[in-house]
Amino acid sequence: MRRTSRLSWLWLVLVGIFMLAPLLATLQLSLQAEMRSGVPISLKAYVDAVSNPRGIPTFDFIGHLSFSFFAALLTIVISTLLLVPTAYWTQLKLPFLIPVMEFLTLLPIVIPVVVLVFGLETVYRGQFLTNSTQGLYWLMIGANVVITFPYSYRPINTALQAINVKTLTEASQSLGAGWANTLFAVIFPNIWVGVLNGAFITFAIVMGEFTISSILGLPTFSVLMYSSSTNQVYQPAALTIISFGITWASIALLQFVGRRSAVADLAGAR
Amino acid sequence: MAEGVDQSTGFLELVDVRKAFGQTAAVENFNLAAQTGEFVSFLGPSGCGKTTTLRMIAGFESPTSGKIIIGGKEISGLPANKRNIGMVFQSYALFPNMNVHDNISFGLRIAHQPAALIKERVDEMLGIIHMEEFGQRFPHQLSGGQQQRVALARALAIQPQVLLLDEPLSALDAKIRLSLRQEIRAIQRKLGITTIYVTHDQEEALSISDRIVVMSKGLIEQIGTPLEVYNSPATPFVASFVGTLNVLNVKIEDHVGGRVSAGDQTFNVGKQLSDVSSMVAAVAIRPEAFRLKNGSTEPSANALNGVVEDMYFLGSVVRLRVRVSDQWINADVFNNLHLVLPERGRTVTLNFMPEACMVMNQDAHSMTAEAGV
Fold it and tell me: How far is CA B313 from CA B24, B291, B324, B333, B334, in A?
């Protein structure tokens, strides 16, 4: 038993090193901006990443970050408005479509994002969605909704399966509520944690998404990271760490909200 | 058509209602007229169509054919949320995200009732279910019985024209079931709401109903008061499903005189058997119809001798399992302080009145009778 325990720890340590070593190396690099000046650890790269001291027009940290941030929020809103009613209706009235939905959630994982983008560009060529910056923005949002579909749909679906959707719906209807009231006053609050789960994962994905935005030429945070890596050394590393920080903060917030918001026992509805 | 089929008019009427799922008819030829304030139970085994019928009244299933009428208005085509019918579910179905107050007031808020009226109604409902101090608690903080009371209050708060209860006590323990069913009946009587109650528990149906609709395989077997259904079962199914039944295979000795024999013992069934074409039949007798010989007997009472094989203490009743020839009879004896029971292996004489015999025109083995504890 002891030998097994030591072996288990050994594997954990090895995997940990494998996972963390590149990140630690990046962190180390991001702190070495003033090493040649004799300062071994410095936050200069972080300060430069945010403040753009050279005044490079395309290097707009706040602009790129807010662009990605609002794109992520918009993706979350559209995904939620689309997927919650879809998952609800499937569970309630069309359970035979559940396997179909399960299959559809695999497609965005299987099909390369670059194929998706080129496909969209080809289909919508010559139309508003490809002819203007505004159109490209909405094309990006649509593509984001597709690539985050597996990660936003599954938590919502799991949350719906955890409550007795049919009985709650019937109880609501027996009290005079229509579909909208039932969905927003009864169902939605009881799957809130699942919606949040999907939202934060969506947020993390969209914040770090590069392929779609670079092909469409849009100024996202990941594009900023890439462009800075072409002529900077330490700032890309700093931006990478910032990006990881945002992602981990999202996950931590998810855990925190999930623990606080979950109803202890969905009494009577399981 | 089954006996007791209700063709009269009433507040809640189901007229020739039928429900088919594909080729299978879940409910067939259902006719019922429930009066205002009447408490009607749908009783039957699982799969008999009682819940399907209830759900058609609620609007969660559409009848394949037939009409459902409430207060003279046909509601068959109305969606569930437009029928003003309160429903209590087996699983309570309280909204987990709302406290007791909000659960009860949900229907009133949907109807955009004034805040003052909502408060008044909720307070009234909390008083009716004796849970005045529980308004701020959430469903997961309540016991099963409390949750079901809140579910009842929620259904009543909207002042429904009909109240539907779908096996509301099935998930509760025996003691809570007993007290809560009496409470439900008392509240229903006080408010005078026409109520349909679905249950597979015959004791529940017998104890609280004005009338019982006994169903089997989608059809109505009998509609009647608890007394009628128990004492005068219209069909072998009703006889066997409601209450415990002894079923004896007998040979008919005298069709006109109504004399039959079980083994080498004969007795009278109290009616002519001219309509029985064969020489054999099944005779059903309730366990409580028997008296041990030392009890008071009428001169016209039948007598069967048998050997006591076993005894079961059921609290208020002691059930004797007696072998009569090659068949068995369960005889119930009321428990009392001075009760003297025969020993196992002892021969006893069981007296019973001819009128207690129910003659079935079929072999006992083909019936769904329960001839034991």
Answer: 43, 17, 21, 10, 10
- Weakest-pLDDT range from A46-55, A126-135, A158-167, A193-202: A46-55
Q: What is the mean pLDDT of chain A?
A: 86
Q: Which of A170, A177, A270 sits opposite B110 (nearest CB)?
A: A177
Across the interface, of B81, B96, B106, the residue whose CB is closest to A269 is B96
- Nearest CA-CA distance, residue A167 and chain B, Å: 6
Q: What is the pLDDT of residue B240?
A: 84
Phi, psi at residue B358, to the nearest 5°? Answer: -115, 120
Grouping H, G, I as helix, E, B as strand and the rest as coil, residue A189 is helix
Q: Are B325 and B262 contacting, i.e. CB atoms less than 8 angstroms apart? A: yes
Q: In chain A, what residues touch B158 (CB-CB under 8 Å)? A: 175-176
Residue A269 contacts residue B98 (beta carbons within 8 Å) = no
Q: What is the dihedral of CA A116, A121, A123, A129, to 10 degrees?
A: 120
Q: Which of B201, B235, B234, B206 is nearest to B367 (CA)?
A: B235
Pairing of strands B39-43, B211-216: parallel
- Measured between alpha carbons, how far is residue B196 from residues A87, A170, B34, B115 in Å? 33, 17, 9, 31
**What is the nearest CA distance from B308 to chain A, expressed in angstroms?**
47
Distance CA B171, CA A27 (A): 58
Half-sphere exposure in the Cβ direction for A81 (13 Å, CA): 6
d(CA B4, CA B7): 9
Task: State the pLDDT confidence band at B47, using cuts at 50, 70 and 90.
Answer: very high
Q: Which residues of A touch B142 (CB under 8 A)?
A: 267
Q: Do A167 and B155 touch (CB under 8 A)?
A: no
Cβ burial, residue B141 (10 Å; 0-12/13-18/19+): middle
Residues 6+ apart with CB under 8 A from B79: A173, B59
The CA-CA-CA angle for residues B131, B134, B139, to 5°, reads: 110
Distance CA B192, CA B210 (A): 12
ipTM score of complex = 0.81
Report chain A residues touching chain B, CB-CB < 8 A: 163-164, 167-168, 170-178, 181, 185-186, 189-190, 263-270
Say whether residue B91 is in contact with chain A using an 8 A CB cutoff: yes
Looking at residues B91-102, what average pLDDT do you find?
95
Minimum CA–CA partner of A169 in chain B: B93
d(CA A256, CA A258): 5
Mean pLDDT of chain B: 89
Measured on CA atoms in the order B94, B99, B105, B107, is the torsion positive or negative?
negative
Which of A105-109, A126-130, B44-48 bottoms out in mean pLDDT, i.e. has the lowest? A126-130
State the DSSP code for B362.
Answer: S
Residues from chain A contacting residue B79 (CB–CB below 8 Å)? 173
Dig out the tokens for B372 from the structure: 């034991």
Given a cut of 50, whether residue A145 has pLDDT beyond it is: yes
Query: Which pLDDT value is given to residue B297?
Result: 54
pTM, to two decimals: 0.80
Beta-carbon contacts of A208 under 8 Å, excluding residues fewer than 6 positions away, are A221, A222, A243, A247
Q: Flag whether pLDDT at B373 surpasses 50.
A: no
Q: Is B118 on the interface with A (CB under 8 A)?
A: no
The rounded distance, in Å, linking the Cα atoms of A214 and A222 is 8
